[in-house]
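Issue 218. Parser rejects a valid record. Input:
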Amino acid sequence: FKNRVVLPFDGSYNNFRHVIHHELSHAVINDMFYGGSFQNIISKNINVQVPLWFNEGLAEYESLGWDTNTDMFIRDAIINEYLPDLNGLYGYFAYRGGQSAFYYIAQKYGKEKISEIISKTRGSGDFEEALKSSIGLNYEELNERWKKDLKKTFWPDIAKMDDPDSFAKKLTDQKKDRGGSYNVIPAISPQGDKIAFISNRDIYFDVYIMNAIDGKVIKKLIEGNRSSEFEELNILAPGLTWSPDGKKIILTAKSNGYDVAYLIDVESEDKDVLPIKLDGISSMKWSHDGKHLLYVGQNGAESDLYLYNMDSKQITNLTDDVFTDTDPVWSPDDKTIYFSSDRGQYINPAAITDTFSLFHMNYHQTDLYAMNPATRQIVRLTNLPKSDELSPAVSPDGKHLLFVSNMNGINNIYEMDLSTSSPDSLQFLTADNMRPVTNSLNGIYQLSLSQDGKKLVFSSFYDAGYNIFLMQNPFEPKTTKKVLEPTVYYAGLLHPEKADSISMAVHSPTVSVPVNTMPAKDTTEVKTAQTDSVRAHIFTGKVEVNHDSTSSKDYSRYVFGGKPGLTSDTASGRNPEFNLKNNLDKNGNFFVNRYKVSFSPDVVYANAGYSTLYGLLGTTVLSFSDVLGNHRLIGVTSMQIDLKNSDYGLAYYYLPKRINYGIEAFHTARFVYLDRSSVEDPLRADLFRFRNYGAIVSASYPLNKFYRVDGGLSWLNVSAENLDNQQESPERISYIIPSLSFVHDNTMFGYTAPIDGTRYNLTLFGNPYSGSRNLSFYSFTWDYRHYSRFWFDNAFAFRFSGGYSGGENPQRFFIGGTDNWINRTFSTGEIPLRNASDFAFLTPALPLRGYNYAEKIGTKYSLLNLELRMPLIRYLVTGPVPLLFQNILGAAFVDAGSAWDQTNKLQLLARQDGTIKTKDLLMGTGVGARIFFLYFLVRFDVAWQYNLDHFSAPRYYFSLGADF
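Output the parser choked on:
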């Protein structure tokens, strides 16, 4: 509805370019299909629906074409046979699988077919029809051919490459470790006996310590995603490092909106916060002498190397420039820093001025560099076009460097010989100084080396999950190959004009492709190399620059020109069609226009429901906001004949600051039959109209992600009118009610209800004024809930709630029954409304199963709920009639509580006939099941009352909605 995009920046301009292109692709498709506005959808009756993989896959293909990360992901999925069909591409598969499908269409049928599919989908509104019309295949046929082509491409790699567990010991297994698909950021202790890592094996991302020998988990050190200290753990970039003595670790995590660094004692688990705070912190490395911390910091504009002095607490920015620096490590003598960067030939940070243009840098290529932290002199170690070199690890003698490179299309470990230069006079190293250590079928990430250099741990995406591996003696090669054979994609990437012949060459070792090469150095001199094989060409890092006479014409603007899926730069200097005018001031700076608030629809819908208290209800909701989401308008209406008998409301929320402000105006009307029986007419019931209208001013202040304080001031007017007896005087009361709440919530939902975490709400409110039309009261309510998860997704739920109200006209509470009870009954025979104030403040305290609604009513209440939640049927297909049952959840519960007016008269238990039984205390127990049916979550419970002596007859409950 907004046709807007949000562009996060993580410090990498390469990632930022990808995000911009991806999100703008969404914006273009949204505008093309739906006109970019809700009004256009309604006025033109647009009903175009495309699968998720189409949307996300197209955006990925347009922004990346094909890339090594997707190539590695799809290779693992197709080899291990877990790649879903097209109609099953959801979640992350919608991105990678969708990108693969569009790449297949472009390769087999031409890039122009993608635009044809888009155009015909827009015209017909039917994606499958557009697919058939464009490429002659229906959904099933495309799926079959796409997956068969992937098998032809990737299955031959099995014979040529090695699984990670063939050259390293697999320490984690996502299929056995309770389902955790992420085991990442491994950091081996200097002594090589323990490994710290992050895993989601317990659903949350937590920090674990494992034995480096057998992989057994020693302890869970830190629980993430539950507290304000560890709101989020950094799982995409290394954020763990050990102290030199192996007794402490430093962990970076998101806390209160920033990344901070925690110093944690592994044995005692004591924590200290270091005075380091940035938008992003990663790649933390402790120096060997224990005096300094080296890390990558991101301040919102750039990513630099920082140095923290443990004694003086001083922080130094070592590379204050626009380039993306990552993965720094210390040399054994702490005199050299090795790191990865996209800075190219720009090795003097001091020479990079504020006017430096990003168009001058090639942020698509990442190489290795060495820095002297004392002089800040930088030396470039690699220059391998079309590949990235990451995650360096230095040998104990400082003469060898392990690193990760995708120079053959897959992230493998390589070794670089540094012995030809001293750390103080490092010079550019060529490919002759490198050799592959592994020939892995799966991508390798995040190297961590023990102090003696005999153990290397890394993470690899293998068989649908990231797992941690231990390699012994990593400086001894695990492959006999001197040169790694390139993947089909990578060979074609280097030689797009020879893609077909290269595809044959990589499947036939006897076939070679002649190439002309340029040395991988910072020079423009072109030399002609001798004929070589493609595999040697890939390894030496040389890129072809030879162009014959037929390539002199620029075909980049043709549909068959350029890299599939990628368009040329749109900078005005490179593309005259993008030459903006009248957008600069006299100083050459861009004009900055004042932002104007303009509202557009977010949500517009109508719904119908059934209230157990008031019957059928219908509501239309309209939500509007501005582009930035700083201002929001919400309108609610349910018109019934006239305004006096209808529901309607209007709310405005001001959201740009940390404190959210709101103002609301509302009117609610309900019609209820109440008992007015007498001796003359014992069955008489009159129709009453209850109204509640007024305004509310509110504010909400988040202390952090899990705690907040809410405050408000309400002006309420309530009335009760007997529509069947005009002689009965209507009741009207006005209230001015301040309120204050303290809220905590870190719960995690399961399929139908929370299964982990804690939430509670403490609220104080009331009407302090007294007079002829308003009566004073005050109320304090609490609601505490805790969920203990076990066996992955089973849970024990505990809830303790209560309320206390006093004053001239105290609030009333009633207990008994359950929420949204369809076949409900009232203990009082009717809704227990006795006056106008009850309509506004009478509050149900639920559930208390085994009893009717309003079994007890009072100005005070207390309620205890214990519930066991477990899956009954995960997936079941019956026969011979093929009925499908899935995700049917079960519950066993005990409810107990009471409501009362005078505490001194409350008697929970009493002796009757010589037996102690419950009196004012109500207790119920039972079992139930929950299942989604026709888009509704349906609950069925059977419960029995229990008075400590015997159980009552069963009572059955059919209700809707989630459990507490």
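Fixed in the parser; the record now loads. The chain has a mean pLDDT of 87.
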